[in-house]
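Weekly structure sync - notes
Attendees: PM, LS, DV (DV joined late)
Agenda: review two folding runs queued last week.

Item 1: First target. Sequence and structure tokens pasted below for the record.
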Amino acid sequence: MSDDGIDAATPLMFLKPRRDDKKLISKAPNHFDGLQIGASDSSSVVEMVKNVGKPFFIDPMAYMFTLPPEAVTDFETHKVRASLSSLAHRYSSLLGQTIGKRAISTDDIINQVDVLDDTTRNALEYQRSKISGQLNLFPMTSYYDKYRLLDDSEDSKPVTPNAVLPCMVIAPYFHFKDTSSPWYTATIRCAKLASRYIQTGERLYTTLLIDPHLLDFPDQIRSIITEVAALSIDGVFIWVNGMDEESAPVSRLTNLLFLISELKAKGKSVIKMHGGYFSILMNSYGLDGFSCNLSYRTSRNIMSYRWKAPKVPRSKFYVPQLHCAYDIEEAAHILKMFPFTRCRCAVCREAYGNDFDKMQQSMKEKGFCESHFLNTRKQELNFTRSGRKDAIAALDTTISLLGQHNINGARHISKWRKTIADFEALAH
């Protein structure tokens, strides 16, 4: 983006679908740029991706095999999840032998070159074949009335359901706490190995699955930038484990901006996994895209298996002016108290209008909050086309309108504004 903040480009948004999202996603192909799926995702998700016909990428999920057995077993049956077992055997014999029994160690892969080489080569091949090797299981012509409320522009184009190859392939990667970790070494080594197996026309990415605390150490960030810049890859995914954009400290968000901007300056495409509105703002500083899902979380923690059972995320209402999702009851209170936060998308107009008591019932119907979110996110992306200055001015306006009132969870607006100010001060 130019210094005056004018640029027609917006970040790419990759939607990470759940099985229950297929009806909504099939009706909203113009509300997102592509899809993200996991290597262990079910065939129904795979078919959804194939039939929607949008660009997609596949997370190889090799980090899962570094976690203890309870992380890869079904919560109810206590057996290894079949999809992960199949993936482990596909990647390497060692992974197939150890899954469900123990986590792999760095000794397993650092000291046994064949294991890392096999895992890398097979992970790339699996990404190439996961979609193309599937059959078309369901038609995309069914009409679901509530999804007619999705806002589409007049120039929306039909999507041809023929996507079979990923728009990029990703080298296996692992979670690391700092640059001295053997898992960081393994991640870099996988990226180097992957460059040997890349095919003509493919774009190769690595992923930095980092601990949030690493963002407290600028010297380590610079070391990562130098090493990643030297790799023969096209781009980088960044995943800060368990750190959401709303609650992260300003210092870490500022250093994340530095990491992104420097990697971009070194010629690497940069995409953030698990992003939100702050990821949209980071487009001005080098972020090419981000992924998100319809449960609105802007973080994911690979260690979450330790403290909670898996469950279907509750529907939350995304408040547009605050760029954050809240429980529906709390969202209704915010909209009543601050009229400027109210949404006028097609879903909200029809579902409740100005009746916020009705909102608490109607928006709990399956698909309504999700449709509203897609409408709102599309508006956010379109708004940023006007440039960085307008986006920052909008944050300032929101801060001013909130005044002295303390809305629970709204402090992130001021935090984002300070992050941008701090980063720009450092840049100059």
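Item 2: Second target, run right after the first with the same settings.
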Amino acid sequence: MTMHDASRTSYLGLIRLQKLAKARHELELSRLNAKQAAIKEENDALFRMQEDRFVVGATAFVPVPIILKRLETNKSLQAQLSEHMVEAKRNLLKASRTLDTLESRLRDLAKTISRAEVADEADEYMGHLLGRHAI
């Protein structure tokens, strides 16, 4: 195994690992988005419950203090989720940039290997031509 093959294999392994890390960060971000959407949906339902209290003939089955307490709790959860989402986006961006860098280095290595092969072929051809003319 040549040094170029080892480098190529190393880059391919690193790229595979980085793709897994990126997928993990994407999954975490989608989980946080789903959680935030669920909280928003719950808040909408709580606001509807609160508004239903003022509808004529409606019977309010959830006391206002409980609704307000849950809305406050959700507000706190949303703030925490927002912080986690910022961190998750930062991690995803970092993983994406690292993956792009590794793929770029792999392309550069492939170009270097290709140039070296062409140079070797040119040297071999020149040696062949020089050897033929010497006879």
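Discussion on item 2: The chain has one domain: 3-134.
Action: LS to circulate a short write-up before next sync.
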